[in-house]
Write a structure and sequence with these properties.
The complex is a heterotrimer.
Chain A lengths: L3 E5 L8 H8 L5 E4 L14 H7 L4 E5 H6 L12 E3 L1 H10 L2 E4 L2
Parallel strand pairs in A: 1-2, 1-5, 2-3, 3-4
Chain B lengths: L1 E6 L8 H14 L3 E7 L20 H12 L2 E5 H6 L11 E4 L2 H9 L2 E5 L2
Parallel strand pairs in B: 1-2, 1-5, 2-3, 3-4
Chain C lengths: L13 E6 L8 H12 L5 E6 L35 E5 H6 L12 E3 L1 H9 L3 E4 L1
Parallel strand pairs in C: 1-2, 1-5, 2-3, 3-4
Classes of the chains: A alpha/beta, B alpha/beta, C alpha/beta.
């Protein structure tokens, strides 16, 4: 089975990138939230449910340096969300056969 | 593994080029090859050697130049996108070259993984 | 000899160019079209997909005269001449915007979300702009 890594770099309250990504992503794929996309990892937001709903079939990650840069390091993230650094980002790209950026 | 990178934004308005740079460094640390970085849309502004960020800010133009020279990375600026934005050979930073869109497609063909950074 | 002719012809990858933004407000739609017209010259499997506001790129009847910008919506008609035949539009994106395939400048293949999901996951390279 083909494995796709989806990159989302926009806040879910600013753009529909995460929504569209989740609409087109298949079970078994992964989603990495980077840049302003990391706001999507926060709990208690109006958009958190969209990720929570899919977290059993899609693996979600956030880019840690982007979380810390935005003062979110101490805030709770959606349960089951993995945290990676840039080297972890590289590993995710190599582990999936295709990377799709939701620009 | 062989990576190709596409950057669609310039060095200041968006974080895209910063993220791409950190990704490229991490890939090299892990022993991968960056076969080409292709600069498109406003991404061509990453090659402007006249850019002068404030002294306490990072300088992505020189960071890319240095990384490209150190690791022999092919830094390609799209000619059509560059001409529109006044990026020409005369102001091209060290290590960059201007070429056609075919270089992007070729990177997609030759690289094991293509990663796009943009807005 | 052109640079792309050096490649072994059997290396055929599936390239998908994804458009999610409307035209004119930003340059992405135009510059993506420019990439696809070049990409068509390589012997690869090329497709273009329009979803979300990207479907507005194909809206019939665009008249840019008064904004002074290039009306490149006519150029989509040339894709066929370049042998770019896989042009997909997401059905749900059209419907959400009150459009049908009849509102578009070129004939397209309208795919449901479920069908598009399959096509997207089968690509080797996805270029978004």
């Amino acid at each position: 089975m083909s494995k796709v890594l989806h990159l989302v770099n926009k806040s879910p309250s600013e753009r529909n990138a995460l929504d569209s990504c989740l609409r087109l992503a298949q079970a078994g794929h992964s989603v990495l939230l980077i840049e302003d996309g990391v706001y999507g990892a926060l709990v208690n937001t109006t958009t958190a449910g969209n990720i929570a709903q899919r977290i059993k079939e899609i693996k979600f990650y956030v880019l840690g340096p982007d979380v810390d840069a935005r003062g979110l390091g101490e805030m709770p993230l959606i349960e089951g969300m993995g945290i990676v650094d840039y080297e972890g980002f590289v590993d995710l790209v190599t582990e999936h056969h295709l990377t799709q950026s939701w620009l | 593994m062989k990576f190709g990178i596409l950057i669609n934004e310039g060095p200041f308005t968006h974080q895209a080029s910063d993220t791409a740079y950190r990704f490229a460094v991490a890939a090299l640390v892990k022993g991968h090859e960056i076969m080409r970085v292709f600069f498109y849309n406003d991404g061509v502004n990453n090659a402007n050697r006249l850019s002068e960020p404030q002294s306490d800010d990072r300088n992505l133009v020189s960071l890319w130049s240095e990384l490209g020279n150190k690791h022999g990375i092919d830094l390609v600026v799209c000619v059509a996108a560059a001409l529109r934005r006044g990026i020409k050979d005369e102001i091209l930073a060290d290590g960059f070259r201007i070429s056609g869109l075919g270089q992007l497609v070729e990177a997609g063909i030759e690289a094991d993984r293509m990663v796009v950074f943009g807005d | 000899m052109e640079p792309w002719e050096e490649h072994e012809p059997e290396v055929v990858k599936r390239f998908m160019y994804v458009n999610r933004r409307p035209p004119h407000g930003t340059i992405y739609a135009l510059e993506c079209l420019e990439v696809v017209l070049i990409a068509a010259a390589f012997d690869q499997d090329v497709s273009m997909v329009f979803l979300d506001d990207g479907v507005f790129q194909l809206k019939r009847g665009q008249d840019t005269a008064a904004i002074g910008m290039k009306n490149f919506s006519r150029t989509y008609g040339a894709l066929d001449d370049y042998d770019v035949e896989k042009i997909y539009v997401e059905k749900e994106s059209l419907e959400a915007r009150g459009l049908t395939a009849d509102d578009l400048v070129i004939p397209v293949e309208v795919l449901t979300t479920a069908a598009l999901r399959e096509v997207m996951a089968q690509q080797d390279v996805v270029i978004s702009s």
